[in-house]
Each structure stands twice: as structure tokens, then as C-alpha cells.
Amino acid sequence: MPRVLQRIVGLAFHYPWLVSLAMAASLGAALASLALPRLLGRAVDQAHGLLIQGVAHAGEARHALLVTAAFVIGATLVRGAMTMWSGYLGELVSQKVGHDLRLQFFQQLQRLSFGFHDRIHSGDLVTRGMLDLEGARVFIQGGLMPILTLVLLLAFASWQMLATDLTLGLIGLAFVPFSALALGRMGFLLRVTWLRFQELMAQLTLTMEENLQGIRVVRAFAGKAFEMSKFDRASVDALAYSYNRITLRFRAVAVMQVTFNASMAGVLWYGGHKVAAGTMSVGTLTAYLAYMTLLQGPIRQIAMIFNAAARATSSGARVFEVLDLEPEIADAPDAKPLAPAKGVLRFESVDFGYVPGKQILTGIDFEVGPGQTLGIVGPPGSGKSTIANLIPRFYDVTGGTITIDGVDIRDVTLPSLREYVGLVQQEAFLFDSSIGHNVAYADPWAEEERIVGAAKTAQIHEHIVGLPADYETRVGERGVALSGGQRQRMSIARGVVPGPGVMIFDDSTAAIDAVTERRVRDALAEATRTKATIIIAHRLSSLMHADQIIVLDDGMVVERGNHAQLLKAGGVYADLYELQSRSDASATLEDVTLEGAPA
Ligand SMILES: Nc1ncnc2c1ncn2[C@@H]1O[C@H](COP(=O)(O)OP(=O)(O)OP(=O)(O)O)[C@@H](O)[C@H]1O
């Protein structure tokens, strides 16, 4: 059995009692089924006896026939009840395993580092967590549970047929090698087909997800036809693989059915001759045929089991591939919770690259203590957000160190570090939940006054109280009911609630108008009075009050000082300030470089 299937079976055995009961019920169903051919054979012989003996022993024979008939009914009832129980318990176990796997998968997605999420698209992960996981789950009820009944039925019926009459038994089982060959071929090809099908489903999910997220862009740029053709291509390919799968399955079923029917005809022909010659009773031949009929259902089912096994092998491999990953960023074995004394954040010769061989940051040095503000400015792509991502250890530095009060952040536990570092990101993502829940996301037990206080700091309180259910108002999917600036202010409020020791604002006021931004800034200055604060911005008015400003270019610090010192130095910062205060407040350092120094 492939390792993936062994693992799935292992998961089912986390419920040993349920599995044992289901197996016992399967066993009961198989035994009851196996009793039927013999009973039927006996009934035929008894009826035949009644026919040839005439009235001589009619009462006795009729009684015997009735007893056999009662046994047939009893065996049928037992088989029905046991089949129902094994089906019910099998489904129960598989649902429990599905639930466990879903939880493990979701937990793993939370554990895995940003580097992993950069590499694998969320659409692919959604497919693995839903469709592939389902493929692994259904193997338990559709593959593992019926297998015991099938093996028992096949083994016992074959043995009975061979033991009663070897030649007739061999004729009856002649279909087995052909069926095994057809099944083996089908199983191998199906595994490949299922894998490709799952990959295509991931591609479809990805396209659909991207389209829903970017529906405004698609509509604005009339991209409907292009997106439709992209989706259609993947969908047509997936359909082709589905056809391929169905064809493979039905081809194998056809081989099995034809060879089975040929064997059955052989049994009738050879057995008929024996009955005619008086060397076999009609009842024995009937029992033979009944055994073969009994095998017909399982043989059809075997094709389905092979299909379920092939699907589970490819689907399970995709699920376990994610579950087996170790997060690149994890607590060191001897990590201790962060216990900051003063709360001084220091970058010492920090180098970083997202991928090997492509350096993004080089030799970054700075220090920011409690009550101090560091401003970071630089052209787009110069590495400002990357600096912000390194502080809560979304990624680890590739050179140098980041310390808090002299302790390397790689030596402290991740939860304590991330609790200590508050990051208000560029993209103001909001959950589909109430305003209050969104603001208090980092601390769901925050008292109302803290939530309201944070909203007031972010200058969004007035707007919230004007909404139909103020703090209970639901924010639409991804916060579409709010404007860009309102979402950014919500995001600032959310960053302020937990009251972390280091606050980082990554271009988090870009969508807010200049007047409101000034008010946010003043309120934030008060709220972050005792914290180490980092402000990343293109608009210099957002960070000119900072104690220290660093100017980044291509991942390196090219200028450093406070606003007055930088103006005096007359470098790119001074040029940008000139440009922004003269005309264009949204001008960036890229514009300065493009334009050259303003006149
Ligand atoms: N997850 C990532 N994987 C690989 N490269 C990345 C990743 N994120 C950013 N980069 C690259 O790192 C460089 C710095 O990006 P970063 O987002 O830090 O710039 P930035 O200065 O914040 O830009 P902006 O002002 O536009 O926000 C860019 O060249 C970018 O393409």
C-alpha cells in the first residue's frame, strides 16, 4: 500500500473503537452474504427432492424447505442491518478524520512562514485544504471500510468454489487474472490523472479567487473576455481529465464484466453437463451460480475502490506535503519570552534578501528607543516595507542582527515578539465582521473605552458613531463598505489597541487627506509617547517631526539625520522636501531622481 494511503488509514485508527465496530459490522455483512448461496443451494435441492419424491414425504420436505427459507430471510436481514451499520460507522469515522485534517491543515497554514505563502498561491492552498482533503477523507468510507467485506467475500467464495469442484471453480474464477490486470493498469493511470486534475482545480480556484478580489480591475479594464478565456482553458483541460478518468474506469469495468460473464457462461455450460450426467446436484450448481452472483457486486466495487485509492494517493500527497513542512521561522529551542527593560530596538549591519542571490537590504544600521520616532523614506522598492517585515520576524535577516534591549529577536519566542511589535501595514485588510471586532482584533477582550480611544486616535470614531449600528456595524467583505482612507484609519486603530512597545506605521496614512492625517499624527504622537515608533512614508509631512530619519536607496541608507540636518545637507531628502512643499505633496524620491534637483 502506498505510504500516503497508509497514513490515511493511520488517521482512521485514531478512532479504534469506531473502526473496530465498523469492521465487525462489515464482517457480519460478509458472513451473512456468504451463507446465502449455500442456503439457496439447499433450498433448490429440497424443492427438487419434493418434486421427485411426490407426496410420500411431502410434509417433512415442505417443513425443511420452510426452515431454509426462514434462514434465507434471516441472513438477508442480518446482511442488510450490518451493511447499514458498517456504512454509517464508516462515514462517521471518515467525517471525523476530515474534521481532524481540516483543523491540522488550517493550523499549519497559520504556522507556516511568509516565505512559504510567497511561494504558494492561496488558490492552490484552498484547493488542497478543501478538495484534496475531501479526496483523502472519502477513501476511508469508500476504500478502507468496504475492503474487508470484499476480501472476505472474494476469498471465501473462491475457496468454496474451488473446494467443491476444482475444474468448475477454476472456470468460475477465470475472470480474476484479467480483472486484476485491468484494475492494476487503471489504478496506475488514474493516479496520474487525478494528480493533474487536482492541479487544474487549483488553477481554477486561483483564477476565480483572483477575479473576485480584483473584480473592479477586471470590469474597469473590460478584462472579462480575457479572464473568461483563461478560466475556460483550465476548465476545458479539467473536463478532459475527467473524461479520461471516466473512460479509464469504465474500460476496466467492461473488461471485468465481460470476463466475468464469460466465466459464468463457462460454469453454466460445464456445470450443466455435470448435472445432466448426474455427477452434480442442481442445488450445488445453483450455489455456484449464487457465489458468482455474489462476486459481481464486489467486482464492480473494486473498480470504485481503486479509483478512490488513486484519488486519495494523489490528493493525500498534496495535503501531506503542506502538513509536513516545517516553518522556516520558528522559536529557537531555548527561546524565552521577550522581557524588555527599556525597549530599545536596534538594527546592526542588517542584510536581507527574499531569495538567495538577490540582496534587498545591505548593512542597515539604526537605533530607536522608547519615546523616539524613526522616519524611513525612499523610492518605491527601496526596501522600506522589508525593514518593517523583519522586526516581527515575518522573515529572518540573512546578515547582521536585530535586537531589542540587546537581545537578538531570534532568541525570543515569536508570540511574545509579535505582541510587542505593532505593525500597521500598507494594505488595510479588514475582516468580514463588526467594526468593534476589527478594531479589537489583537485583543478581543479589550474594554470598550480602549476600542473607542483607539478609534478616536485614528480619527475614525466620529464616522463610526454615524453608522447604523456604530461599533456593531458589519464591515463588508474586505471592508468594501468603507473608503480607502476610512479603512486605513480602522487599521491604525487596530494597531493602537494592544498598546505594543514598538509601533510601525508602514505608509499607513497614504490614503488619508492631509488635514485628517495631521490630526491622526498629533493623536498618535500622544498615544505612542512611550513607545519606539517607526514611520514609513512617501509624504514627508508624515515623518519630518521624527527624531531621526533615514533615507533608503536600493536597500542602503544613503542619508541620515533629523529634518533640519537633512535639509542642511542638501541631498535627495532636501530636494524631495523642496519638491513636495513647492507643488506636489505626493512626489516621491523617484520623482526627484527623475527630475534632478529642483530649481
Ligand atoms: N515577498 C517578496 N518576495 C520577493 N521579493 C519581494 C517581496 N516583497 C518585496 N520584494 C522585493 O523587495 C524589494 C523591496 O520591496 P519593499 O516592499 O520593501 O519596498 P518599499 O520601499 O516598501 O516599496 P513601496 O514604497 O513601493 O512600498 C522590491 O524590489 C520588491 O520587489
UniProtKB/TrEMBL annotation:
Keyword Cell membrane: yes
Membrane topology: Multi-pass membrane protein
GO cellular component: plasma membrane
Transmembrane segments: 15-36, 138-162, 168-190
One Gene Ontology molecular-function label: ATP binding
ABC transmembrane type-1 domain residues: 21-311
Database matches in Pfam families: ABC_membrane, ABC_tran
Source taxon at top rank: Bacteria
Domain ABC transporter residues, every copy: 345-579
Compartments, record wording: Cell membrane
Keywords recorded for this protein, A-Z: ATP-binding, Cell membrane, Membrane, Nucleotide-binding, Transmembrane, Transmembrane helix, Transport
PROSITE patterns: ABC_TM1F, ABC_TRANSPORTER_1, ABC_TRANSPORTER_2
Keyword match Transmembrane helix: yes
Protein name: ABC transporter ATP-binding protein
Species of provenance: Phenylobacterium glaciei
Organism placement in taxonomy: Bacteria, Pseudomonadati, Pseudomonadota, Alphaproteobacteria, Caulobacterales
